[in-house]
Amino acid sequence: MPICYGESLVGTSGINGDMFYISPDKTTLVLSDGASGAGKMGKVVMSECCVRNIKESPFCLSNLSAKEYIENMVWRINNELIYISQKSKTLTFGTLDICVIDNNVATIATIGDSPAYIIHDNTVKRVAKPVKRYKTIVDFGLLTEEQIEEYIGRLPDCMWSLFDIFIPMVVPAYAVEEIEMKDGDIVVMCSDGVSDYVKPEELMEIVNSDNLEESVKYIVNLAKDRSISERNKVQYDDITIVIYKHQIKI
Description:
The protein is an alpha+beta fold. The chain contains nine helices and ten strands.
């Protein structure tokens, strides 16, 4: 039986926009980080939407391949978030990581900046890294990434609920990657509350495959301590991490 642990620590805002979910059979892992730009409650709504949809439609009952299942869930969640944004007139958005393990293959999809890593044979690799849709505009030299981000920030609030419809190029495309899992391989998914303060190489060194629960708690506390130190001992972001260790049935 595979081993999987996750933990989430609310930041100084007092409202946790991060959420994670591990299915009972440990075949589906979800991590979502509602963006602070969506407002205190908007970020909670976003993450709750992601987790709820996965819970309501589990992979084990889908009769789909892992890749098909993830694609369906991404579209379903995105459509619901667009509806919520239009109804509330507040942009509801954030990041989403989904990992489905089936037949010793991990299919991992990420949207936004919450990274996913594979640890294998004392190496760590970021997987399924998405590319923002406006990258083509930057590559052609029409605008810089900084200019695009600045223009987005100037949008009047009344347009934000229609954000995905009128300006789809700035919505991050999601990336999907399939990884063949060997016995003992580890999947790490985390919010930027972790990745901003703990390097991938450190994650690999810290993760103790014999005690994932202890490793999770250590990483959460390390990210918190570094965040407080860097932010003048006042603030720290929501901190969430999920670690999965693969075990092949013999």
